[in-house]
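User: Quick sanity check before I run a bigger batch. Here is a single chain. Can you write out its predicted 3D structure?
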Amino acid sequence: MAKVFISYRNSDDPSAAVLLAQSIDERLGEGASFLDSRSIPLGVDFRPILWGQLAKCLAMVVVVGPKWLAPDAEGKRRVDLMDDFVRQEIELALQIEIPIIPVLVGGAAKPSGGVLPDSLAALEHKQYLTLRHRSADRDLGCLLDRLDELVLASSGPDTRAKRSDNPAGTGGITFNGRVRVGGDIVNGSKYVT
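Assistant: Done. Predicted structure follows.
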């Protein structure tokens, strides 16, 4: 089972996400990271796998590069769109209280000053890590040490997966009114999770 969910934008700096996944797997064991492009088999509906894995992970790493908040060709920022998967991933992680570590890459600045939609505002207050090419070993070491702590802390009787299976009063995790993990509705379609 993946322990660390990696959220990133394909249009931003996906190579950093791959590097982080490889480093996490080297430290925490093969398959410890969830990276959609390599963790989801070709030809399957990715949505139930994506939401199910996120609900079971112990931590989320959000890769923020210089284009993470950039507008598209139509002048709209993806993060402002309700159907943006990166936004939905972070919203769900915040809702079910998965620890989130923003990792700034490529010289990106930390999102602050109210630049994020209200549903993501808490991300502005998360302690972040800057991954720099000149100190990559040290920076990665800090991130991996923290992820190691989170995984070890979860090995007690109250694990993340156990807590996320059925939050009180919800019968699952409802997200944006469309996703229920631990139940059978994901983005309006029925799935077994």
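Residues 159-180, 182-193 have pLDDT under 50 and may be disordered.

User: Great, the batch can go ahead then.
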